[in-house]
Each structure stands twice: as C-alpha cells, then as structure tokens.
Amino acid sequence: MKYFLLMMMLGVTMISWSQRSVTGKVTDEQNIPLPGANVVEMGTSNGTTTDFDGNFTITVQDLDAVLEISYIGYRSTEVSLNGQTSISVQLTEDATQLEDVVVVGYGVQKKSDITGSIASVKSENFNQGVVANPGQLLQGKLAGVNVTNVSGEPGANQNIIIRGVGSLRSGTTPLFVIDGFVINNSDTGVANNPLNFINPQDIESIDVLKDASATAIYGARAANGVIVITTKKGKAGKTEMNLNVSTAFATIANPMNVFSASEFRNQVPAVGGTLFDGGANTDWQDELTRTGISKNINLSMSGGTADKFSYFVSTGLDDQQGTLNNSSLKRYSGRVNLTQKALDGKFNVDFNLTASRTLNERPDTEGNIVDMLQLNPTLPPFTNGEPTFFIERLNPLERNRIYLDEANSNRILANIMPSFEIVKGLTYKTNLGIDYISTNRDVQFLPYQLLEGFENGTLDTRTTVNSNTLVENTLTYVLNTGNHGLTLLAGHSYQEFLYEQKRFEMEGFANNGIEPRYQDQISTEIFPTSQTGTAYKDEIQSFFGRVNYTYADKYLLTATMRADGSSRFGADNKYGYFPSFALGWNIANESFMENSTVFNTLKLRASWGRTGNQDGIPSKVSLASFIDSKADNDTYPINGTETTLDDYPFGTVPVRTAFPGLKWEVTTQTNVGLDFALFQNRITGSLDYFSKVASDVVLFANRVDPIQPTEKIWTNIEELEIQNNGLELALDYRGDFSSDFTYNIGGNISYTDNKVVNSPFAVLTSGAAQGAGQTGATINGYINDEPIGAFYMKEFIGIGDDGLNQFRDVVPDGQSLDNDRIVAGSALPDLIYAFYLKMNYKNFDLGLNFNGVSGNKIYNHTAMSLFNKGQLSRNLNTTPFAAEFPSESLSNSNEVSTRYLENGSFLRLNNATLGYTLRPSEIGLGDLVNTLRFTVTGQNLFVITDYSGFDPEINTGNTIDGIQTFGIDRYTYPAPRTLLIGLNVSF
Fold first, then answer.
1. Which residues lie below 8 Å from residue 61, measured CB to CB, with a gap of 6+?
2. What pLDDT, on the 0 to 100 scale, is given for residue 956?
3. Distance, CA of 371 to CA of 387 (rounded, Å)
4. What distance in Å separates the CA atoms of residue 150 and residue 246, rounded to the nearest whole number?
5. Mapping DSSP to helix (H, G, I), strand (E, B) and coil, where does residue 981 land?
6. DSSP H/E element including 181
7. Given the DSSP bridges, would you call strands 458-481 and 484-507 parallel, antiparallel or unpaired?
8. How many CB atoms within 10 Å of residue 639?
C-alpha cells in the first residue's frame, strides 16, 4: 500500500512539474490595454481573463500549448507558446466591429448587415447604482428613447417613449421580449413596474428596435417599439463565480422651500390670518422622510465546454428602502440559463428560467406629501413620546402607524428552445414558454378610536393572477455562396393570456392589536363586504416571415411580413397585416473607398413599414355587454301587483354595444439613417431621420347619433392621425493621453415634432384638475394641430384691483370664459439629450452620465392645490409662491391657468461612478481571486432646472377614460439622491 501511495505522490509531482505558468499582456493596435479579454488554452476548458492593465497569468499543460485570445470587437488570435513563458499579444480591431451581433426578432444579425434602426447597450455600459428594473439601465443611453420616472418610489413605473407618443389610449409602453419570450404588460395587481421581477445584474444586453423594418416582425404589438432583453449565458472555456455586494443611502434630493416655523409665525399674521402657535419648530419634510438604506447581494456562476454545454446560474437579494416611511421594495430572484449541444452541434437546446418573489410596501403617498408641505410647522410631532393628537386631522406619524399597503408577487418566466439542423443551413426551432404571476395585495387601516372616520378599521384585499403561454415554431435557412448571403425565416406563433382579479372591501374590525388582514373577515349587516371581480382571456395567432439578402457585403435587403389574428379585434377584422421593407448600402466596402484614410464604416439605410397597436383595445370591447339594473328607467312593473321599487323586476340594460369593425391602430414609419466610423474607429456614430404616423386610432368616444342605446362606443377614429417626425444623432469618441490614460466621450440628441391632426374633437382631455372646487377642469389634452399633452387653459396676467385672478381676454367680450383658453405649451419635450465621459487611468476609472430635456412644460398641481394665500391664513403652510401678490384676496380661487404652468427643461447629472480595480496578486490573492473591484456611485447628484417642485422629471401616470396623462405633478413621490458603495469579486 505504501508503495502505491509513493507512486501516486510521484505522479502528482511529475504532473505539477509538467505544468508551467505563463504571463502575458493583451493590447489593441495603439498599445492600449484590453481588460477582460478571454485567454483560453486551446483544446481544454482552461482559461482566464486579463486584468485592468491587460495582464494575465495562466497555467498550461506544457510550453507547446496554443492560446486563443479574444475580445469583443476584435479579431481573435491564436498564439503558439513555443517554449515562451511571457508573451505580448496585440489584437486587431475588426472593421468597425462589424462582426458584433445584434439581437433582432427571432434571431441575430451582424451589425454590418442591419438595415433597420436598432440601438444597443451592453452590460458594461448600463447605468450603475440602485436599479430595480431594465428601464433604469437605459435612461439617457440611446437616441430617440426617452425614459421618464413616474415617481421616486422604489420600483416605480416608467414612461418609455420611443420616437414620440403615437396613441391615445395605450400609453407609451414598448413591447418587451426577454430571451425570445414576448411578455405581457398587463396589470400585475400593484401599481409598480411590471419588469421589477428581473434582476438587472442578470442582463447581458438590451437592444431597442425603433423603426418599422426592425419592429414589423412583431406585428400588432410593435407600434411603440420593441425592447429585446438578453440575459447572461455561460462562456465556453471560462468558468467563473461573481459576487456583487453593495449598500446605498438615499435621501430626498430637493426638499420644497416651504416656510420654516419662524417664517410661518411672521407670514400668517402678515396675510391677515390668526396664528395658531403650537410652540414647536418642526420640519415636517424631515419628520416624514428618512435616509433609505438599500442592500444588494448577487452571486452568479457560469462556465461551459467549447462544444457541448454552457450554464449561467445566479441568485440575488435586492432590498430597497424608499425615502418615505412605509416604502420599500424587496426582491428575491434566481436564474438558470442552460445550453446543451448534441449530434456535432446540429441539435441544440436552450433553457431559460427566472423565478422571483417581490415584496412591495407602499405609503399613503398623497397624504404624506400633503402633510409634509402643508402642516403647521409650529405643531410638535410628538407629545409625551406619542404622536401629537390633532383635532381636525390625523397626525401623519399616526397614519403611518395604522396604514399599510403591502403586496407580494411571485413570478416564474421559463422557456425552452430546442433547435435541429435538418440539412445544412436549414434549422427548425421551437419556443415553448410560460410566464406566471400571482399577486396578493392588502391595503388596510387599523382601527383608530380617537378620530371620526377611522374608528372601524378597513381592509381592501386583492388577488391577481396572470398567465402567459407561448408556442412558436420557426424555420430558418441560411445560404452563403460567393458574394451572395441569404437568410430566410418563416414562423408561426400562438400566445394565450389569462387574467383574473378578485377584490374584497371590508370595514368593522376589533381594536385588539391584530391587523385586520389577520382577523376574521366576516361580513355584517352594518358593514357588508363589497365583492368585485374580473377575468378575461386574450389570444394571438401569428404567421410571419423575413428575407435578409446581402451582396458582396455592400448591398443589403430586408423584407418582413406578419399577420396577427387577435381576439381583441372585431369580428370583421380578426387579422391584421404588417409589412416592412428596408435597403442598406455599405459604402465603405466599395472599391472607390478602399484607400480612404477617413472612413472605416459608412452605411446608408432606408426603410418603410407598418406596425400595429392592439394595446389600445381592451379585451372584449368589440362585443355587446348588458347588466341587470333597477335604477332610473331601467325597470317597470309587469305584474301590476308591485307596491315598491323593491318589487320591480330587474331590467336588462346595454352598457356596451357591439362594434364588429373594431381593428388595431396602425403606425406607418419611414426611416433614413447613416452609420459611420472615422479615423480608425475613434469616432463612431449614427444619424437618423424618421417619420411615424399613427392612424385608425382607438377611442371610447361619444356617438354622433344621440338616439342610441349607449352614450359612447369603442371605435376607430379614422380621420385622426398622430404624427411624429424627428432627427436622432449619436456620437462617440475614443481617445487616449497615454497607454495608462484612456477616455471615451459621447452622447446623443433627439428632436421630435409631435402633432395631432384631423381630430374631430375640440379637445380630448388627458389631464384634469382634482380636489375640492377643481375636479374635472381640463389641464391638457389632445387638440387638433397641436402636440399630445397640449396645455389648454386661461392665461394668467396678474391680480386685479379686486384682489382676484385676472386672465387675458382672448375673445374680447369683457368676460373670462372657457373660450378664452389658449394652448400654452406641451407636456412632451421636443428635445431630449444625454452625454457622458468615461476615463481610465491605471487601476482607476470614472464615468459621468448626464441627461436632460427641453421644450416641455409641467403643470404644478401641487402648488395649485396647496400654495395659496387663503391656505396660509388658515394656519396651513405654503411656499413664498402663495404670498407673491400682497394685494391678492384671501378668497381668490386657485383656478386652472398658466399661473401654475412652469418650464420643465432640465439637465441632470444622472450617474457618476468612481471605480478601482485591485490586482489580487498584489495582496497575495492571485491564486484565489480573478478580479477585485471597488466602486462608489452617485445617482441624481444635481439637476439644473427652473421647476419649483420636487423634481422636473415627473408624471402622475394617471388616465382619464383610458387616455394617458402627461406632465402633471400632483403630490408626487420625491426623487431621491443616492450614494452607493459596491464590491465585485470574481473567482
């Protein structure tokens, strides 16, 4: 036995002697180090990556090994060691990274072959910091893509507008495709972002399809653009573990300038009020906010063999606190991405699974914002250690104790995609997937005996279930012969969506220290339970095809067609047809450009196509619907024995009449673009012009004929069009001061001219006032020959001698009437822009990202509702805005007018990240750790704006009759300023 052990030890020793350590450095053509380059010993799974300075160390079996070095955007190189233990490798950049691929619908394409307008962001260029969903990764990154936060709440929804708003009802949300699975943007049971379930650290790249040539393959759901999200996969020959941990601290970025206690004591008497002095000096904004602490932990493992199998597995915890109390978002996530190959690569199976559990706690935002701005600053928040009792209103500290809005959502998204190469070049692929969401939400008030209206306690509980199943089959044929390249795609898709929601509202709970949601929820005669519910099923069946042809890598053609059959369409229009055509010319590949020292890439693109928008059509609205009713004239006596209304029979009343002609909205788009790279690819960019016209707009409109069973009907407004015309420019410059000091500077700018034309309506209200004496007054809407969200109101010109508002008499009749209203600007910016700077000096790197908008207005509904002289005289706090006119009467009304309309332009330092990459070998960890990186990130560090509210990048996200509201700030959750400290370790 001992001889056997001795031989084993000798064998191990001999093996260790035969293995040798090789060091090297990888640079580009300018001798600039390439961090993150892959170094693999060919024929094995042994591999490593270069550090920040392009250096690497790898242990090989012998010094006759061959190393393969690769880096995105550069030609891979094979290096024979030939006995060397130290090498230097210089990679050659390919022609403007033409071999980089972009994910398009149902496949990928080389950048050089793209004929449509597609913009991409890789993970290394994502926005850093506290990020809850993919939209935050994109903000300011792409020309023509405007990402606007609805509020500063953790996980809040966003408006993502690609090339302007093109619908009345369906909002702006683009279609999202995650690893080939088209997800549904329907209600998940809580008003936050439906993409919060995705761990942003699992995302490899995001491709935004903007023009019709790129989006038409998705047919009736692509009018708002398509965002394709690709998650991370394992890399052959590279086994790696990554641990990311971070802690962040968030505070209100821009508190409002309300009066302090000392100012308040002077201002109330000054405007004629009688001061109620509670003796305190309270900053209610400070009392009702906090430093939100967020924690993130993410662990991933990946790897694979060159020709058989690859994997990526991750798990993460994201725990975000909001700056308002009772505000948080906690997400537990897990992901498994697998790829298996067999039959010499002819049979492949891709499997993607993500599972998440999201816990969302939401405050009474409106109540908190009103209190933090309006409460008397001389009132003490606490008395004898308990929240001070206020006679006429609830102390907000007490409300935060008795109020709860909590939702938990479980979501699973999984798809499996087997593919088989039938003959050379011809591949069959199927995509089978399920997206399942289950959400439970409880909104409750604990019983509070001291104040009328709160003594009984309430509970509103909702259960929402969504499921989305997908079956797709495609055939792809690829032929490359001589100068000709041809790719043919044909496919069929069937998708089914099920939605169910049940809601119970209850009142009357014992004040026994047990939350209402955990008590017996039994209905009584005094407080009967209100029950409501809804359910629907939608189906889409589609047939689609695409042709891609290239000749000599110079001339490009793309043609697509999709036919979508949808259960949302009327009986007479079950199928919609969506074609597109595009041409491309790689001018730089022409013989007359061979000797050019300026252009490395010059490509001209042109496209035309149509896409649809079925999201403007709610389920079942093309069908007739009836209810039973005893109201008004809906019932009458039949038997003649009835003595009271209770004896009358129910009448059957139409609530919706059938419209079998209802069809999808159509968006027709033309695009002309130019892609370029100059001076050895140091300057790269693109320029696009687009024209985007939406027609057959869907609306729940009043009937022209008054003699009809219902007042309104779902219909297409055939004459009305929404036009968007614009220009987009993206530029990037890559330079260096030395081999140790490199930098990138770039940006993008987009101009969009938005207009509603041929509207048969004087105004379609999209934004209206709310509150006592204000409800229903139009603020903005859709007006003929004006942009969407045009503000339509009286023009404020000052305070008259009587102390009341004065408005411009547009129609000179000496009266202030509705016909004096004017269009006073739009909620949509006509210019959006962003620019960035990235610098690398040895082990340090710094990234700065700025973004901004121009040309839009914001209606400050908060100021209209709270900041007036009458409020101040009644011991309610305001800003100096309320005392702007000394002669203003205390009884002056806060009427909708340009008095509350402000400039919404801004420039923001959205993101700044300082990083340091430590060489593990310098601290004795070279054999254990590949990368050790520290980062400090600031978000929303400053904003330059004239807007007086919490933040100019804001929108309530409300709707009126399903028409989306833009540009109104009413008690909006304040935007935070965040500082994050992070650590990344890879093994």
1. 18, 19, 41, 44
2. 63
3. 14
4. 25
5. strand
6. strand 181-182
7. antiparallel
8. 8
Would strands 857-860 and 968-969 be described as parallel, antiparallel, or unpaired? parallel
CB of 178 within 8 A of CB of 227?
A: no
Could you count the other beta carbons within 10 Å of the beta carbon of residue 35? 17
Contacts 24+ apart (CB under 8 A), 883-892: 883/267, 883/270, 883/271, 885/798, 885/799, 887/799, 887/801, 887/803, 888/799, 888/803, 889/802, 889/803, 889/804, 890/271, 890/272, 891/803, 892/799, 892/803, 892/804, 892/805, 892/868
Owner of token pair 């779902």:
714
Provide the greatest CA pair distance for the chain: 115
Torsion over CA: 100, 104, 109, 115 (sign): negative
Q: What is the pLDDT of residues 928-967, one digit of tens each?
A: 788 889 999 999 999 999 999 999 988 666 777 777 888 9
Kindly report which listed range (232-236, 400-404, 762-766, 769-773) carries the lowest average pLDDT score: 769-773
Structure tokens at 768: 């209206």
The answer to whether residue 15 scores a pLDDT higher than 70 is no
Residues 6+ apart with CB under 8 A from 937: 128, 129, 911, 912, 913, 914, 978, 979, 980, 982
CA distance 664 to 573: 9
Q: Give the per-residue SS3 of 667-727.
A: EEEEEEEEEEEECCCCEEEEEEEEEEEEECEEEEEECCCCCCCCCEEEEEECCCEEEEEEE
How many angstroms from the chain centroid is the CA of residue 833? 17
Neighbour tally for 686: CB within 10 Å:
21
Q: What are phi and psi of 292, to 5 degrees?
A: -80, 125
Element (H, E) at 6: helix 2-18
DSSP letter string, 182-201 = E---S--SSSS-TTTTS-GG
Retrieve residue 843's tokens.
Answer: 């082990």
Pairwise CA distance, residues 692 & 686, whole Å: 19
User: Would you call 513 helix, strand, or coil by DSSP?
Assistant: coil
Strands (E), 362-402: 382-383, 386-387
Q: What are the angstrom distances between the C-alpha of 526 and each of 456, 523, 532, 765, 874?
A: 11, 8, 19, 39, 37
Tokens representing residue 223 in the block: 């009018």
Element (H, E) at 396: helix 396-402
Are 104 and 128 spatial neighbours (Cβ–Cβ below 8 Å)? no
DSSP 8-state secondary structure symbol assigned to residue 96: G
Q: Are 110 and 558 in contact (CB under 8 A)?
A: no
Comparing C-alpha atoms, which of 726, 728, 730 is closest to residue 677? 730
Among residues 425, 444, 539, the alpha carbon closest in space to that of 487 is found at: 425
Quote the tokens at residue 424: 């050379």
Q: What angle do CA 505, 511, 517 make, to 5 degrees?
A: 40
> Taking Cα atoms as reference points, which of 961, 976, 900, 855 lies closest to residue 146?
855
CA distance 267 to 867: 13
Rg (CA), the chain: 32
Cβ neighbour number for residue 785 with a 10 Å cutoff: 11
pLDDT surpassing 80 at residue 820:
yes
- DSSP state letter for 589: G
Tell me the two tokens of residue 269: 């008497």
Provide the 3-class DSSP secondary structure of residue 866: helix
The predicted model scores a pTM of 0.86
CA distance 708 to 869: 48
Q: For a pLDDT cut of 70, what percent of the chain falls above it? A: 93
Cα atoms in the Cβ-side hemisphere of radius 13 Å centred on 7:
4
Taking alpha carbons only, the member of 193, 204, 224 closest to residue 131 is: 193
